[in-house]
Design a protein that fits this description.
By secondary structure, this protein is of the alpha+beta class. Helices cover 61% and strands 7% of the residues. The protein has a 6-stranded antiparallel β-sheet. The longest helix is centred in the middle third of the chain and has 72 residues.
């Protein structure tokens, strides 16, 4: 794949994955095939200062995982708030048009009532007896009856329009309540994200430089171990799907973002969170998908891992809190977490929940 913008050949993927690991400590290792000859040197779990680095690694993973869950909640509330705002605007336009129509109907009904008043007074039989032209009177009487029927229809239409306006007003009020609820959900999620990231950053800040280096090594080894176990199952030999044309476009977009920073809630162009990257990649391919990893898991068609092809999305963890794009040869491109950049990693370096296909 060269710089991440070219073809997804096996040799290029191996090179990019290897370079990603060697040049950036702590980035998950994406080995296209198991490499028995590579035996990572065990890193002491306890630092000279007495810190249990393996426990710290797990704690950091938990904090960033909780931040990812809160980010998904924030993104979901943001999307729902956008939708409700749009619906409120549409309802407001409908209400304005309905009020204009009601005003017009009232004017027409008033004009009809005034016309009937001017033509009233004497009973119909007296007006017929006094008329110089009975036939002309009868013709006029017929038109009056037609007018009365039209007026009744006008009044019925006014009633229906008033009822519609009342329902539109109720709908708008309900949407306002939902909008406010989602605003509160966004604020709550934002506080949770900030809290979890701050806790993780505080924990990391307490480490010395050498401890951070050893911690990064532990992270790499954990990812490598998980990836190797996944590949050792023989799954890669079963995966032979070729990318669709839209899938190729999505992969190109996603790999073009390599090196850009992770930022929760971001959808580009300068930064991304995990689902922001995947949703924008497929939007660039001409196929819109849900904004959050959880909704991508819920709404998009599921496929077996063995049927996976480049462009498909791999959903991670039991709560679907992370998503990445499969790019072939056992590798993914994803936006990992705060403090990291969009990168290539092993598809099996995290617990896989399942795979979804946007263009099924």
């Amino acid at each position: 794949m060269g710089s991440g913008k070219g073809s997804l050949t096996t040799a290029a993927m191996v090179l990019v994955c290897a370079c990603a690991v060697l040049s950036a400590p702590g980035v998950a290792y994406a080995s296209p095939t198991p490499a028995p000859t590579r035996t990572p040197t065990p890193t002491p779990a306890t630092s000279p200062a007495g810190k249990d680095l393996e426990a710290i690694r797990k704690k950091l993973d938990a904090l960033y995982h909780d931040a990812a869950v809160a980010t998904d909640a924030y993104n979901a509330a943001e999307e729902q708030a956008k939708q409700q705002s749009a619906e409120i605007v549409d309802l407001a336009r409908v209400i304005v048009r309905g009020q204009d129509k009601l005003d017009e109907l009232k004017d027409r009904a008033g004009a009809a009532a005034r016309a009937q008043y001017r033509g009233g007074g004497l009973p119909p039989e007296m007006r017929l007896w006094l008329s110089d032209n009975p036939q002309q009177y009868l013709d006029g009487a017929g038109r009056v009856l037609q007018g009365e029927h039209a007026t009744k229809g006008l009044l019925a239409e006014m009633t229906r329009t008033q009822q519609d306006l009342q329902q539109y007003a109720k709908d708008a009020s309900a949407q306002w309540q939902k909008l406010e609820a989602n605003r509160q959900a966004k604020a709550t999620a934002q506080k949770e994200i900030t809290k979890q990231i701050a806790a993780a950053e505080k924990l990391e800040s307490q480490l010395e430089k050498k401890e951070k280096e050893r911690l990064a090594k532990l992270e790499e080894e954990a990812a490598y171990k998980a990836q190797t176990a996944w590949l050792s199952s023989g799954v890669l030999a079963e995966i032979s799907g070729k990318a669709s044309e839209q899938g190729k476009k999505a992969v190109k977009f996603a790999t073009d973002q390599i090196g850009k920073p992770y930022e929760w809630g971001a959808e580009g162009p300068g930064s991304y969170d995990c689902s922001g990257l995947t949703s924008q990649a497929w939007a660039a391919a001409g196929h819109g998908i849900p904004r959050t990893s959880q909704e991508q898991w819920k709404q998009l068609p599921h496929v077996d891992v063995k049927d996976m092809r480049p462009g498909d999305l791999i959903i991670y963890f039991d709560d679907a809190s992370h998503v990445a794009m499969y790019i072939g040869d056992g590798a993914i491109v994803h936006a990992p977490r705060p403090g990291r950049t969009v990168t290539i990693a092993g598809a099996g370096s995290m617990p896989i929940l399942g795979v979804v296909r946007p263009d099924a």
